[in-house]
Amino acid sequence: MLQNSNPIMKISARNILPGKVTSLKKGPVSSSVILEIAPGIEIVSSITSESAAGLKLKKGQKAYAIIKASSVIIGAD
Questions:
Q1: Residue-wise pLDDT tens digits, 38-54
Q2: How many structural domains compose the chain?
Q3: CB within 10 Å: which end of the chain, N or C, has fewer?
């Protein structure tokens, strides 16, 4: 479960992947965050820089990728 300034909250997303921040590139509006969720497996997310600051993200920190999607698109040649 996730914690913030509120008590522990429950969320409806089922895909919660724990990981470690391996890269954080802050921009004026958005930031790119890379989480390693398993050895050699990374997830990249673009979030607002305000959110990155609010989460106090830093390299090496434990964080979670929370995925909530209504569809998954797959393509092939």
A1: 999 999 999 999 999 99
A2: 1
A3: C
Which helix (H) or strand (E) covers residue 37, if one does? strand 30-38
Q: Which residues contact 54 (CB under 8 A, 6 or more apart)?
A: none
51 within some domain = yes
What's 32's domain CATH number? 2.40.50.100
pLDDT digits (tens, 9 = 90+) for 5-44: 555 778 888 888 999 999 999 999 999 999 999 999 999 9
Residue 10 resides in a domain: no
At residue 60, does pLDDT exceed 70?
Answer: yes
